[in-house]
Design goal:
CATH topology of the largest domain: Aspartate Aminotransferase, domain 2
Shape: globular
Bound molecules: pyridoxal-5'-phosphate
Radius of gyration: 21 Å
Helix content: 25-40%
Length: 370
């Protein structure tokens, strides 16, 4: 039958009437940019994450960039981050002229190894940018303590972790500011691109908002150069309909993950490790094969069986050509490098059925046995 990596159509069918009403209202009102829908969504997101402010913008990449800019991070500064993430995490650092400094990850959670952060701090370090990878929070108390001891600011890349918790608090409320993406495949996705910044810092929120609006707080008056990073009313309306369902969808992902944990125990793959300090929202259910050859054999067989999969991530960021071509010495990050070509996703979306999961498990086991 085949199982997709992600089934977004099922989500639409369940909310069709409400979502279609948003579409026709927006078309009828002809108010496409900003306006009350965007403001309402910002309030909803801030309340959901437990922050004072939320600032909507065009996408998660911009959310990260706007935060870096608002923090005044610039050329000569260093920002400590993880090599095992989507490329946007380091782009925001590069685009304000700063230098990403990579620390290795933990096996199992694939999150930044907080115990390695202190050794990476130099006189130029300004910030730490952890990523709650695959929907699991980094150990933020430990990280924030290091940052505080060294006078550094911490920013969460929470693009994969909306709804994830850490000691009872939500991702997005665990550091100075956080970036979320509403790309369609994220746990809360819109019908195009979208993003939001969450923070308790009023000045940061105002600065990011101004930057996102051409450096202007009053229309046609500009006291700095900004950019254009807006969320459409349509996207905001869609997200407002979907957000009340997010916890239920995340619970469905967690239930599906628990089924894989049991069904795949002992088959020879490293299964995701979940820390006890919070709830992971399984943006992706990632398994690690014993070698790149085995990973490629299994993913090929899954493809032939019509089961969706992909490598996350095929190549650690410090090994990407954009860094290697400079000729600078590469950091040695063995845990992250050990994931190259070996970590891949199994379908784990809200509403996946037991029969679909059985099919995935059978395809994986069958491939491993040959
Ligand atoms: C998706 C993602 C981003 C970027 O979000 P966009 O909305 O696609 O710009 C940044 N960081 C991580 C970890 C992501 O998964």
């Amino acid at each position: 039958m085949g199982v997709p990596l992600l089934d977004l159509k099922a989500q639409y069918v369940g909310l069709k009437d409400e979502l279609d009403a948003v579409w026709s209202d927006v078309m009828g009102s002809a108010g496409f940019i900003g306006g009350p829908r965007v403001k309402a969504l910002e309030e909803q997101v801030a309340a959901y994450c437990g922050t004072k402010y939320a600032v909507a913008c065009a996408n998660g990449t911009d959310a990260l960039f706007l935060i870096m800019h608002a923090l005044g991070i610039h050329a000569g500064d260093e920002v400590i981050t993880t090599p095992f993430t989507f490329f946007a995490t380091v782009e925001c650092i590069a685009h304000v002229g700063a230098t990403p400094v990579f620390v290795d990850i933990e096996p199992g959670t694939y999150n930044m190894d907080v115990t390695k952060v202190e050794a990476a701090i130099t006189a130029n370090t300004k910030a730490i940018l952890p990523v709650h990878i695959f929907g699991q929070c980094v150990d933020m108390d430990a990280l924030n303590a290091i940052a505080e001891a060294h006078g550094l600011v911490v920013v969460e890349d929470a693009c994969q972790a909306i709804g994830a918790t850490y000691k009872g608090r939500r991702a997005g409320s665990l550091a100075r500011a956080a970036a979320f993406s509403f790309f369609p495949s994220k746990n809360l996705g819109c019908a195009g691109d979208g993003g939001v910044i969450t923070t308790d810092d009023e000045a940061l929120a105002a600065s990011a908002r101004k930057m996102a609006s051409h450096g202007s707080s009053k229309k046609y008056y500009h006291d700095t150069f900004g950019t254009n990073s807006r969320l459409d009313s349509l996207q905001a309306g869609i997200l407002s309909v979907k957000l009340p369902h997010l916890d239920e969808w995340n619970a469905s992902r967690r239930a599906a993950a628990a089924i894989y944990d049991e069904a795949l125990a002992g088959v020879g793959l490293d299964l995701p490790v979940e820390r006890t300090y919070g709830e992971m929202v399984y943006h992706l259910y990632i398994v690690k094969a014993a070698s790149a050859e085995i990973a490629s054999k299994v993913t090929r067989a899954m493809g032939e069986a019509g089961v969706g999969t992909a490598l996350y991530y095929p190549l650690s960021l410090h090994e990407q050509e954009v860094f290697t071509k400079t000729g600078d010495a590469l950091p040695s990050l063995p845990v992250s490098e050990s994931c190259d070509g070996r970590t891949f996703a199994l379908p784990c979306f809200p509403g996946i059925t037991r029969a679909q999961q059985d099919e995935v498990v059978a395809a994986v086991k069958e491939a491993l046995a040959h």
